[in-house]
Write the structure tokens for this entry.
Amino acid sequence: MHRISRRSFVTGLVASAALPFVGQARAGNGLASLKFMTEEYPPYNYAEAGQLRGISVDVVVEMFARVDSGHARSSIEMLPWARGYNLTLQRGGHALFSTTRTADREELFKWVGPFVPTVVGLTAHKGRKLTVDNLDTLFQLRIGVVKDDVGQLLLKAVGFPEERMEVVVSNDQNYRKLIAGRLDAIAYETEVTRWGLQQLNANPDDYEVVHELKRSDLYLALHRQTPDAIVTELQGAFDSMVADGTYQAILSGYQAG
């Protein structure tokens, strides 16, 4: 069992779906040639001792087996988010997880899931005593974002001044800036932010979510020209995991003790 925090990351997730994708050689429909990509986004996908781990990764690996794709854990490539996102957006044969499904992205990809609910919000140090109750207050902050991540996109959607965004490729940079007091807040998935702060020996309980930007779900996103037959095959594999209890077993394996 992987114990990742003092509190469970899976409360309320049982009813949600998980993420999977894979190539399916036996159908002869192109699944076997799909390239699956992810990023450092714990507890959903992350590297540990040179191997990919996490709720979403374990679900994907199980899906690989169920569609008899010939893929394995080692088939998944870890890339910076912006690179993986743009490859999936622009090139056929690519799939990316864990991707937040939003209205702006709906027609850009095809989707398999949902695998877990997600909250994207502003996390700040409690000592700053920030209250964000209107756009004027929000626009006064200096906020860290990851390039092309949903946090950046949601801030842009409400007109947040770009000059007040600290745009990075890896959120590890923003965690360090937040700990050092060089940022007012980070716009990112809130549980992933807690994890990241903890990995840098900061006490996540010293931080709080001062504003929610979006509640949604994490999915597998596939290039928009992916054949519907592939999407159906992958969704069926995921649905079977939920039905037979395998998905819940994966979630329970990441539950804090």
Notes: The longest helix spans residues 228-244. The two ends are 10 Å apart (CA to CA). Residues 179 and 202 are 7 Å apart (CA to CA).
